[in-house]
Design goal:
The protein is an all-alpha fold. About 65% of the residues lie in helices and about 0% in strands.
Length: about 160
Amino acid sequence: ILSATIQDLECVIMFFAGVSPPYNRGFLHSFLASLTIVPIISIILAYPFLFLIKRIFNFSYSINDFIDKLTLRDAGLSLLSSFSHVLIDSLHHFYNPLFMPFINKSFDNLVLFNDWVKASFVMQFTFGISTVTILIYESKKAKSFKAFIESTLIK
């Protein structure tokens, strides 16, 4: 979850720094950062994220035990999710700094329909339906609310 969403923290930070949309997407929304910096940031933020989840939902697991169980497969999924975030964003956003810091211009050749407004609608609808479907599936599979939260936010 963290690796797939770290890039959007950049948008929030840039908003408070006074950078207006659509130019509030920078280096973290590039292919280079998604494969280097973002996984490192997600590892650093894993402790506070797990601590918050543990406190909010009163889990009894040890954060260090969870971190110790991370495998090479988890690292690969982290890279894949951060890279796919950038790739999916490039399909429907107005400004796409995919090759930053080498090229600061927006790379818009991947925008669906050559119209980022239509593409945004299609992508938001598609991912919205997918997310709801996954959450319904996970909620039916879980034996309790706590198990549902654990399966969607932690595992």
